[in-house]
Every structure is written in structure tokens, then in C-alpha cells.
Write a sequence for this structure.
């Protein structure tokens, strides 16, 4: 069963605009963590942001914020003031006590 | 600086051969992971280890094995390589939440 769902295969955003990348998850565990990773065309996986299931406040890291809605089981990534260097694949992931699950990714293209 | 490395970075092998991909980390992390990345599937967990002598199967473990004899290394072995195992392989390590990824190994099985 799909544990992490990213429904947007590709997204476009104008430079300097904000963009939201969607992620929904499925787990019966009470304790879990949610992550976003960036994979540029060079191939490396870059950690962006983390949200714990018990964290009451949404995580923020610079221009990245995670919109965590526990009841809806969603963990959307918001990138503010998009830059050309933000063009990349973005993966949502979930860590449960058992395993680590990744979504299929969203390709983001920032348009000048 | 601490790091995680993978070798080789590129490998071409023939069907049926045994192949071992190396992963070495200097973070001194207890947890290590192997993933494969394929178009349309994202990253899928192959095997993971929470410490020396500990290994566990992930989502797509068939045809792969790992062993953990020390903290720094988690080699991934393809017992008899198949064309379906052509992929990009990522190793990662962590102490808990955040995972640090290696640069990846592109494996082609012909």
C-alpha cells in the first residue's frame, strides 16, 4: 500500500513566487517523522526540512516551511520566494518505527 | 569533515554476476540504509541496519543482501544480477531523524 503520495508529477512556478508541493501520508503509528528532500539534476539528495508527529508548530527552515495537518495526514512543502536554483525533484518521506518511505516525487521548474 | 561515500559511482555488469556496492560513512552513525531509485517509484528501501550485526529487509529486498561488521560500512550485494536491478542506488546513514545520503551508484545490468 502506498504510504506516501505526491500527486503532482510536475509543477511550474514564476521566480520570486511561492509554491506549495503536496504530500499526503498513511500510517497507523502515533510516532513518525515527515521529511522533504531536494534532488537537483546532479543527483544528490539534499535534506530540506523535518516535522515530527508530536510537533505542534509547523517546521520552518529559511524559505522552506512544512504545512503539517495531522488530521488530514498531509505534510505540504511551501517554498517562498522561489529561485532558479530551486528547480529540482522534491521528495516527501516518512519515517515510522519500522521503515522509511519515500513518495514518487514532484519535479519543480522555476521560470525566470 | 564527516561524510558518506559510495563506490563505485558507475558500474556495468552482466546478468548473473555477483556485484557488491560499497558504502562507507564517517559520521559514526548507528543507522544505515540502502535504497534504489527508479523513475516512477521514487526511492525504495532495500535493506537497513540499526547497528553492528543488525540487518533488516526493506520493501524490495529480494535479490539483495547486506552485512554489517562495523559501524562505518554497509556493503550491498546483488547475489546474481538481473536486468531488473538496473537502477541508481543510494546509501544513507542517520542517528535518528535526518538521513545523510551518499552520492549514489549507477548500476547497469546487461
Amino acid at each position: 500500500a502506498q504510504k506516501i503520495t505526491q500527486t503532482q508529477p510536475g509543477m511550474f512556478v514564476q521566480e520570486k513566487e511561492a509554491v506549495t508541493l503536496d504530500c499526503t501520508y498513511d500510517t497507523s503509528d502515533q510516532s513518525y517523522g515527515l521529511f522533504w528532500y531536494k534532488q537537483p539534476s546532479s543527483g544528490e539528495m539534499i535534506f530540506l526540512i523535518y516535522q515530527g508527529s508530536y510537533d505542534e508548530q509547523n517546521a520552518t527552515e529559511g524559505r522552506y516551511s512544512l504545512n503539517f495537518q495531522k488530521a488530514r495526514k498531509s505534510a505540504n512543502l511551501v517554498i517562498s520566494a522561489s529561485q532558479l536554483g530551486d528547480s529540482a525533484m522534491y521528495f516527501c518521506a516518512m519515517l515510522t518505527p519500522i521503515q522509511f518511505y519515500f513518495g514518487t516525487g514532484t519535479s519543480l521548474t522555476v521560470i525566470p | 569533515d564527516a561524510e558518506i561515500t559510495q563506490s563505485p559511482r558507475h558500474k556495468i555488469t552482466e546478468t548473473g554476476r555477483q556485484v557488491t556496492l560499497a558504502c562507507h560513512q564517517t559520521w559514526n552513525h548507528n543507522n544505515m540504509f540502502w535504497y534504489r531509485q527508479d523513475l516512477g517509484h521514487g526511492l525504495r528501501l532495500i535493506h537497513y541496519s540499526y547497528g553492528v550485526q543488525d540487518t533488516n529487509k526493506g520493501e524490495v529486498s529480494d535479490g539483495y543482501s547486506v552485512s554489517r561488521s562495523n559501524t562505518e560500512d554497509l556493503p550491498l550485494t546483488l547475489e546474481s544480477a538481473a536486468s531488473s536491478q538496473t537502477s541508481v542506488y543510494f546509501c544513507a546513514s542517520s542517528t535518528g531523524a535526518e538521513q545523510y545520503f551518499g552520492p549514489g551508484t549507477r548500476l547497469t545490468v546487461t
